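Duplicate of #3305? Posting structure anyway:
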């Protein structure tokens, strides 16, 4: 997962796939973030984490100095051009990528975990999701006569209502986002509350997401049907990706990644909890900096589902053209293999994204990587208008 996601964003010269020690360093750095945020003599208390972070920054510096960004996604290229306009040295640019990688590699994997947890732990929901996804499957034959079951993953967000509603409810139910906004001028809210210029407003997402006046008396429960008939939901009440100008520019990318990954799992694998009973894992060890809380360990068994008698292989593709994105399933799970907590970082190579560089010499090379195919929204972020009116739809 780490490699496939960063490949999609950073292209064929992705520092994580070029240099395996960069990935190792990343996962040495990550657990130190909470303590680093506290800022208590970090050079002593989080020495290893800081050293690991420095190694990742060096890998990114090499990436930029070798022109690796020229084959990357539009977002990376635009960021590069923007920072260069402000004469930001490439070392500083490389440091910014630490924040980008936190965004890419943290909340999404955890969201996928919870999405799968809620789907598999309720046989009725699992059955409905399989049924919905199966309606998108087509029997096809390749040029060499091989038959296979074909699924265009880009159809899921718009055609699988229950499945998509599950993801929205997963975000509502688990998101721990707290948005921080600074007040730029004296402002009266609702003619009652004066927010003074220079102050800071903290908007705790979980309080709003569990507000019974907004979501009804069952606001504290997981209800997979909640979003079924809600076409458009304002970001004042539904804020897993924040709101307004700083709203997450990666939301479409990740929505599509989670839906695609979950669909590939649900269609092909059974997941069985260790003692036969699904119990929601505790979120006691959630990281304060993450907008989705990670679960405590949860032992499950993952088995390839016995398919029908035809046993045709699956082929997962993004978009109509088979050429654009081949998402062959490289889930390397043999039957009866035990996984710890379905942690997505452990099952690598799930999404394989091909990068097609068109132009090489004028710093405008464009890569057809996953996010561009999926929505293009990741490329330049959002204007404030787009952000406030956003429809949370893939
Ligand atoms: C499930 C996955 C993700 C979640 C839940 C998430 C959530 C968030 C949230 C809550 C914010 C703050 C919004 C605010 O200030 O109101 C944010 C900002 C941001 N996210 Fe994400 N994010 C995810 C994935 C990604 C990905 C994949 C990328 C990049 C490829 C990304 C890039 C960013 C960036 C650059 C910002 C800062 C935007 C700004 O300040 O202008 N995020 N994200």
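Output from current build:
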């Amino acid at each position: 997962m780490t490699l496939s996601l960063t490949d999609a964003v950073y292209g064929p010269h992705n520092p994580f796939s070029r240099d395996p020690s960069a990935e190792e360093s990343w996962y040495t750095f990550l657990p130190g973030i909470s303590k680093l945020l506290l800022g208590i003599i970090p050079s002593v208390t989080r020495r290893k984490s800081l050293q690991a972070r420095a190694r990742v920054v060096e890998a990114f510096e090499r990436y930029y100095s070798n022109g690796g960004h020229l084959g990357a996604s539009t977002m990376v290229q635009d960021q590069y051009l923007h920072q260069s306009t402000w004469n930001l040295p490439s070392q500083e640019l490389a440091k910014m990528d630490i924040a980008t990688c936190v965004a890419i590699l943290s909340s999404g994997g955890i969201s996928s975990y919870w999405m799968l947890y809620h789907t598999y732990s309720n046989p009725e929901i699992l059955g409905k999701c399989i049924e919905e996804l199966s309606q998108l499957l087509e029997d096809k034959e390749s040029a060499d006569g091989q038959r296979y079951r074909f699924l265009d993953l880009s159809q899921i967000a718009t055609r699988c209502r229950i499945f998509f509603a599950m993801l929205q409810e997963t975000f509502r139910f688990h998101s721990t986002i707290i948005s921080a906004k600074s007040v730029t001028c004296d402002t009266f809210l609702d003619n009652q509350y004066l927010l003074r210029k220079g102050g800071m407003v903290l908007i705790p997402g979980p309080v709003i997401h569990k507000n019974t006046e907004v979501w009804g008396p069952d606001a504290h429960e997981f209800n997979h049907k909640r979003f079924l008939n809600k076409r458009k939901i304002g970001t004042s009440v539904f804020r897993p990706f924040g709101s307004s100008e700083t709203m997450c520019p990666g939301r479409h990318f990740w929505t599509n990644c989670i839906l695609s990954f979950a669909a590939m799992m649900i269609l092909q694998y059974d997941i069985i909890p260790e003692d036969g009973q699904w119990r929601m894992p505790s979120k006691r060890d959630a990281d304060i900096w993450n907008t989705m809380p990670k679960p405590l360990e949860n032992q499950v068994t993952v088995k390839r589902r016995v398919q029908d008698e035809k046993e045709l292989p699956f082929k997962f593709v993004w978009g109509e053209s088979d050429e654009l994105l081949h998402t062959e399933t490289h889930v390397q799970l043999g039957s009866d293999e035990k996984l710890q907590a379905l942690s997505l970082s452990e099952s690598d190579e799930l999404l394989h994204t091909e990068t097609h560089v068109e132009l090489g010499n004028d710093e405008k090379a464009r890569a057809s990587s996953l996010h561009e195919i999926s929505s293009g929204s990741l490329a330049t972020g959002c204007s404030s208008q787009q952000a406030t009116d956003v429809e949370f739809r893939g």
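Confirmed duplicate; merging threads. The domain at 107-346 is CATH 1.10.630.10 (Cytochrome p450). Residues 9, 100, 103-104, 107-108, 111, 177, 179, 240-243, 246-250, 253-254, 291-292, 378, 381 surround protoporphyrin IX containing FE (CB under 6 Å).
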